[in-house]
Task: structure prediction
Amino acid sequence: MEEFGWAICPQAREDVSPSFLRSCAEASDEIGVDEAGNIGLRRWPHFNPKTIEQMAYSALMELGGPAHFTHIASRMNVLFPKRAPFNDRNVHNALIRSDQFVCLRRGMFALANWGIRPTPFIKDFLIAELQRAAGPLHQDELVRRATLKHGYKATSVKMTLDLNGNIFKSHPGDMFGLRVAWT
Result:
């Protein structure tokens, strides 16, 4: 492996100009330069995007983290100027419909292959916490866990516990557990 790449001639790395790399990439059948000026393999689906979903994927890859759909659309306008301007709502609709993207909260999206999961509904989170505890927990402890883990508001957690009597059983001393059907 040492005989390939920069290990043969480490000083060549300093001598190679970006314009030389770009001209080599443009001449290659396998490597190319995209509209944004990035060098990559032509077979990569996000390298030469044709649809709004593929362009949004490229924009999120370049942003490197979750972003609001308006920020994604703005980035798409920079990356793909020949196809710009992109309508924010069209980008949003493409993100919602595609299983490549995860909606984290209102308007915020991430790539599904990053391993990011959307925030669960409060009810689902409380059920999972009570199942993990294998017994009743104090309301304040449930609020503390919900606030720390997902940033839920205390009033929302308390209201969810109170309004779902068919799932959560109230015990004396502000303790809550799951009804037998949910265990």
Summary: Residues 1-11 have pLDDT under 50 and may be disordered. The beta strands are 31-33, 39-41, 67-68, 101-105, 108-111, 137-138, 168-171, 175-178. The longest helix spans residues 52-63.
